Amino acid sequence: MNSIAAITLQDPTPPAADWTSDRQPQRDPDLERQPGPPPPPPSPETVKEVADAMSAYMASLGVELRFHVDDSTDRLQVEVRDPQTDKLIRKIPPDDILRLAAAIEETVGVLVDRSL
To answer: Which domain holds residue 106?
Structure first.
């Protein structure tokens, strides 16, 4: 006859707080601050300095980055290239996404008067 022993495992984590508990969760005062005006966009010189620093770092890893601004959306696009063959590996964001963004901005411009 085989005997089977029952083993009860105890969870080392304490049970979840009861939803009827009077205890309130601690609040982070930094998260409760009201948002202020957005910071100003970086200057073109700052963007170029950061892009050059990122390119130098990635080159040390064996990857070439090329930065340019898309004309239709004024958004930054990065080309990742193989430095030995100059073969394009990836564009971030892809051209399709930039075309979609341009189409959405054009549609919004037709539907909403931005001069208000």
So the answer is: 43-111
